[in-house]
Automatic annotation (TrEMBL):
Signal peptide segment: none
TM region positions: 32-50, 57-88, 94-115, 127-147
Taxon lineage: Bacteria, Bacillati, Actinomycetota, Actinomycetes, Micrococcales
Keywords per UniProt: Membrane, Transmembrane, Transmembrane helix
Keyword Membrane attached: yes
PANTHER family assigned: DOXX FAMILY MEMBRANE PROTEIN (PTHR36974:SF1), MEMBRANE PROTEIN-RELATED (PTHR36974)
Protein's name according to its UniProt entry: DoxX family membrane protein
Length: 148
């Protein structure tokens, strides 16, 4: 839930600042959404590296995927790179597309987490709300792509 709140609050604040100031680069919903997504992905990427949270993420990687620790590290790095890409107008669309694909690729971990034995530090959001959040994140990505 926290990533969704961050996305919505930052997007709204950036859009308000853009509307009040007319600053180029933040004067549209798509640009504001890109900033909201960037802050959200920086926040979520950080959890890939905090030892306690990291252990929970490693625990929800489906067993068919080798090297779960490496997968968690790589996805965290991809989230940081994507967040940076969202802030640069010339790379915004590519970054949004890549982050959208990353969300889709990571979704099986959410499904697995919903049915797996829970690690005490694993995310505890049930599958239905988690799916709704993912769809909202993908919608924000589409807004970013569409308006850029």
């Amino acid at each position: 839930m926290a990533p969704l709140v961050v996305l919505l609050v930052v997007t709204g604040l950036v859009r308000l600042i853009g509307w009040l100031t007319g600053l180029d680069g933040i004067d549209s919903w798509s640009a504001a959404t890109a900033y909201g997504l960037a802050v959200m992905f920086v926040m979520t990427s950080g959890t890939h590296f905090v030892p306690r949270r990291r252990a929970g993420f490693v625990a929800i990687v489906p067993p068919a995927i080798p090297a779960p620790g490496l997968v968690v590290t790589v996805t965290g790095v991809f989230e940081i790179a994507g967040a940076i890409g969202l802030l640069i107008p010339q790379t915004r669309v590519l970054a949004a597309v890549c982050l959208g694909l990353l969300l889709l690729v990571m979704f099986p971990a959410n499904v697995y987490a919903a049915g797996a034995q829970r690690h005490p530090n694993a995310p505890h959001t049930p599958l239905l709300p988690r799916t709704v959040y993912q769809l909202m994140f993908l919608a924000a990505i589409i807004v970013t792509i569409w308006g850029s």
